[in-house]
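## Example record

The block below lists the input lines for one assembly entry, exactly as stored, with component labels intact.
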Amino acid sequence: MAVFPIPHRDPFLFLSRLEATDGEEAIFAYDMPRHSDSFSLKMFPTLLMVEAMAQAAAAFHGVRMNEETDLATQETGVLASVDKVRVSGRPKPGDTLTIKIKRRKTFGPMVLLDGEVWVSHRLAASAELYVRRGISGATS
Amino acid sequence: MSEVTAAQVRELIMETLNLHEEYEPEEVEFDASLFGDEGLGLDSLDALQLAVAVEEKWGVTIDESIGETVFRNINTLAGHINNSL
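Predicted structure tokens for the full assembly:
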């Protein structure tokens, strides 16, 4: 599993890899395990989709794509607020979550991002996430 | 478009930042500081939420570069909105 510039670690890390970023938006993926000692639930809890978007938003600020590695840690983000959460689906064990994060507005140290969770080309959740930039965090 | 009043801006601030539980509208003076220890004591998260709310309601953008001036108080914010309409 990739190391992201946020302090979260398995089993409470809901990002498996960074698939793409262009500086304004990023796409992460999370492979939900079919079997887990930590989660015996048959469905992925709704709240954890919000957590996955929050982790992706925070990690987005620490992610710099380069040609040598898929991730390099420069800075991180700290979640400040979540708003307008909408849930329209619930992933099942074995599903891959596609987590899309897009920067909408920056104001001082604060950034507003739009987050979405997609499962099998269907929107499962969305939210507005407010993240504070530039605070160092764990990188390993 | 008709002029945006300071009272309308105050209402947007109070609604966006959930200030109705803390203040009565008339307690929030139009020339009181929005940020800092005096006045409402808003923070950087409030500033971003307020900038987004103004943009959504009146279509007026508030960039970071002018934020300190525009967000000085309700009167300055209303003035910026009206100058931009």
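DSSP finds one helix and six strands in chain A. Residues 62 and 108 of chain A are 17 Å apart (CA to CA).
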